[in-house]
Design goal:
Elements (H helix, E strand, L loop, with lengths): L2 H5 L28 H13 L5 E5 L12 E6 L4 H18 L2 E6 L5 H10 L6 E5 L1 H9 L5 H11 L6 H6 L1 E2 L2 E2 L2 E13 H7 L7 H11 L16 H12 L17 H17 L7 H9 L5 E5 L3 H4 L19 H4 L1 E4 L12 E10 L5 H11 L4 H5 L7 E2 L10 H7 L2 E2 L5 E2 L6 H13 E2 L8 H10 L1 H10 L4 H17 L3
Parallel strand pairs: 2-3, 2-4, 10-14
Antiparallel strand pairs: 1-3, 4-10, 5-6, 7-8, 7-9, 7-10, 7-11, 12-13
Helix pairs in contact: 5-19, 6-15, 9-11, 10-20, 11-21, 20-21
């Protein structure tokens, strides 16, 4: 039986903190879930009643070039009201241009898999899905829910050479492309440049650098580091995956055998355990508490996603920095924060960065022609407005067009960010930070995807065994024992997959 039906797992990326996938699987898992619970509850009730939670139905009569009788349903994993409205505006422009009517449905990330399962079983899938993280794309592919021919045709029309090669690799399964990659966010290590400079410390890009900095800067007023430790939380898994990838720790090898119990992973757990136990704050830490500590000026380093950049600049009233210096200058932390995109451990010969790629895909039972038109539009005329919804967490993986190869990446760099106040990132962050963000999509690494184990990655999001293992280590358990038990648990989960 298909794993989609047997696992019934839930994706809980606190994406937009609003996150992140989301996510909590990936898009972070980032930014509290403002308004999500109400939307998710409403969506669940509507689906239970056998209807779609439609956010809008574009039915403009304005003489588009397409057949006005064409209509499609589009799901997006963007459920915050302001983002839904911004997407609806793009949809309305698409309808005016093509005549294709679109029913837009906002789906909360923590409801996605349940709604996908029930809709697929009822033969009522949407035509297009957008904002979909890698794990969910792989799950859809493994259950034959993607029209891969239509996806390939869209990529051919847009020209695959205009996309990040790494992003294209991550949306493939055994050479078959499952989605059209749209944007990405990366997990970053943020650090207080002013404190580092005062202490004569270099940027914390290696395990040794990070531990040395944490030890040097840890004091009664400032923790050397804060990072996620909450069990069962995807943000904890994402944070550790970022750290572990840098040490050459992989979930599985190229043959699909579970390798999380190998020495490189034990060493990564030991490193993270030492960092948290010796130089962090007490208690289980999650997406909100880690950000709060850094924003209060009580931590020298923390790991979060790019979605925090606008908040750190004082552009969101519901997530303002609260440090002493921030009272006079809300952007103090942004001006005094450096970023490290890749981390390298002693067991690896190259650094790595964790991140998420979100995509558009066309379902197996779609109205193919209008669905293709829509995806082409969202990666064409609608691309800049879509990315502009949240530029800090939507770094383009399509950099431009064949005629202007950097058109979209250039436009992204100048886009204003923020919610209550808007301004370009360049007003607060140095050019080296912006360059690092733009380069992120080409450097992304992920457990299991490249090894063809995307379905396993998706399945792990329900039980979150990695997050629980991290919590065990940061609570004092032996890393080798924890890694061994984790490997057995993941192997058992892998055995339930087709």
């Amino acid at each position: 039986m298909s794993s989609l039906w047997t696992n019934q797992m839930t994706t809980v990326t606190r994406r937009n903190h609003d996150h992140t996938q989301l996510p909590r699987f990936g898009r972070h898992a980032m930014r509290g879930a403002r308004g999500r619970r109400a939307v998710a509850a409403a969506a669940t009730l509507l689906f239970a009643a056998g209807t779609l939670a439609a956010c809008g139905d574009s039915d403009s009569d304005g003489g588009g070039s397409g057949d006005s009788s064409e209509s499609i349903t589009v799901w997006i994993e963007e459920d915050l009201p302001d983002r839904v409205q911004a997407t609806q505006d793009i949809v309305d422009d698409f309808t005016k241009a093509t005549g294709v009517k679109v029913k837009l449905v906002a789906v909360a990330e923590d409801q996605f898999n349940q709604l996908l399962t029930s809709s697929a079983a009822a033969g009522d899938l949407p035509d297009v899905m957008g904002g979909i993280p890698l794990g969910q794309i792989q799950t859809m592919g493994s259950n034959d829910l993607v029209d891969t021919d239509a996806v390939a045709e869209v990529l051919d029309e847009l020209d695959a050479s205009t996309f990040s090669e790494r992003a294209l690799e991550l949306v493939q399964d055994d050479g078959t492309t499952l989605a059209v990659p749209s944007e990405s966010w990366a997990q970053l290590l943020f650090y207080r440049k002013d404190l580092f400079d005062q202490a004569g410390l270099s940027a914390p890009s290696t395990y040794d650098d990070i531990l040395n900095a944490a030890q040097t800067l840890d004091s009664g007023d400032v923790a050397g580091f804060v990072g996620a430790t909450a069990p069962g939380d995807a943000f904890t898994e994402q944070t550790f995956e970022h750290v572990a990838l840098g040490n050459g720790c992989e979930l599985v090898d190229d043959d699909g055998s579970v390798t999380i119990g190998d020495p490189a992973c034990v060493d990564a757990l030991s490193f993270y355990g030492q960092l948290v136990n010796d130089y962090s704050v007490p208690g289980a830490q999650d997406v909100d508490t880690t950000r709060a500590s850094y924003f209060a000026g009580q931590a020298a380093m923390f790991i979060w996603s790019t979605f925090v950049l606008d908040e750190m600049a004082g552009l969101r009233n519901d997530a303002m920095p609260t440090c002493a210096e921030c009272k006079k200058d809300p952007a103090f932390l942004a001006k005094n924060t450096g970023v490290v995109t890749t981390i390298q451990g002693p067991d690896s010969d190259q650094p790595a960065v964790f991140g998420e790629v979100t995509s558009w895909t066309i379902t197996a039972d779609s109205a193919t022609d209008p669905a293709k038109k829509f995806v082409e539009y969202m990666l064409g005329d609608g691309y800049e407005p879509w990315v502009a919804i949240a530029p800090e967490g939507k770094v383009p993986v399509r950099t431009g067009t064949p005629d202007d190869p950097s058109a979209f990446s250039d436009a992204w760099a100048a886009m204003p960010v923020g919610v209550d106040t808007k301004a370009p990132l360049s007003d607060f962050y140095s050019q080296d930070v912006l360059d690092a963000l733009a380069a992120g999509p080409s450097e992304l690494a992920r457990w299991g995807i490249s090894q063809g184990q995307g379905d396993l990655v998706g399945a792990l999001q329900g039980e979150q065994p990695v997050a629980t293992a991290v919590n065990d280590v940061t609570s004092g358990s032996d890393p080798a024992d924890v890694a061994s038990k984790l490997a057995d648990q993941i192997t058992d989960i892998q055995g339930t997959l087709p």
